[in-house]
Amino acid sequence: MILFLAARPVTAPPVRPSRPVRPSPRRPRLRLRSRPLAPYRRIFAVPGTRAFTAANLPARLPMGMLSVSAVLMIAGSRGSYALAGAVTATGLAATALVGPWTARLVDRHGQARIAVPATALAVLGSLSLLLCVRHGAPDWTLFASYAATATTPNTGGMSRARWAHLFRDDPAARHTANSFEQAADELCFMLGPVLATLLCTALFPEAGTAVAAALLLTGVLLFAAQRRTEPPVAPAPATGRPRSPLRLPELPPLLVTFLATGAVFGSLEVVTIAFADGHGIRTAAGGLLALQAAGSCAAGLLYGLLRPNGRAGHRFLGCTAAMAALMLLPLLAAATGSPAALAVALLLAGMATAPTMVTGMGLVQSLTPPGQLNEGMTLAVTALLGGIAAGSAGGGWAVDHLAGAGAAYGVPAAAAALALTVTLLTARRRPDRPAAPVS
């Protein structure tokens, strides 16, 4: 075709070649304007990506449902929020211990071989909790049952590992995929508690746990069935047992930043509920928190449209600085006593969290060895969960001991400042490596 077009001027007037040349500079600009979502279309054009993403979403939604459902179910039947909180805290601690071990097995033996039996065990734990609550079993059975749910695999991490394998030589596509995954996380944590509350209050107290367990099992089975996009199992090292990613010098400081970021999330939730309760609008607390998650979800999707420039460490520093600055807005808005001002402040504050998480997860992927991606990302999620638990406790203490819930918004602001401080202190010592290729 090129040779044919080159031969055309021989028989055609000389002016003919100028016609296709004239509009050519405009076409790329028009195409970019009419296709603003081109980066997302490009990653989902790869065969199999839509299938595993569609299967992963129902598997991920229970992450925002299980703890809320357990609290509502236990508190409704036993009349004790203290017992409900202790049971969910025990499950969180068990997840922090078991989660990295489960992820290591996934890396070593494959997603399908480990995720399905691990999910089955977790679902049995949820059903055991439901039956123990339903039939008035002793309190210790609630702790044992909920602790069994700690084998729930990190479905978001497994999805990110697939993107990392598919786009191992394309950093821009990995950035877009990680942005989408973070937006999906925010969407699930925004819709999960709402769905759990609706099921537990409109149907019966055990409905939330039952539906969450069914979604988890169905989603993981469908996800594991998508074998063509599953990352290959890395060969075992010749030295025997692989080193834990925790022994990498650059990873622990990054996990401390994730811990502080989790404290932002946990304290923001508790303080916002207390603020709404103190202003007589407790039913609006879910809406206020949904605004924060919506801001984060939108920012994550928009962030994925941008082409990452510069060093990842510098971008991460900029994201944590933006988060620290925007987390001052709820503190200032709460001081006015206006729920409307707080709603706007939470929406804006949420817009810094997703870019921080996207860039941070990208750094975890680049630092973690190829055959330990699931373990590395699960360690990051574990740090987040630990931070959420600590932030919830710190936010609750601040509400009780400071001058009202408005002043307690200083806790998420302080946690964001801590994340920025840790990043500043460790940014120079963290090398920017290219993302490790997945064999």
UniProtKB/TrEMBL annotation:
Keywords: Membrane, Transmembrane, Transmembrane helix. It comes from the Bacteria. SUPFAM superfamilies: MFS general substrate transporter. The keyword Transmembrane applies. The chain crosses the membrane at residues 82-102, 114-133, 210-225, 251-275, 281-304, 316-335, 341-364, 376-399, 405-425. InterPro entries: MFS (IPR011701), MFS_trans_sf (IPR036259). The keyword Plastid does not apply. It holds the Pfam family MFS_1. This is MFS transporter. The lineage of its organism: Bacteria, Bacillati, Actinomycetota, Actinomycetes, Kitasatosporales.
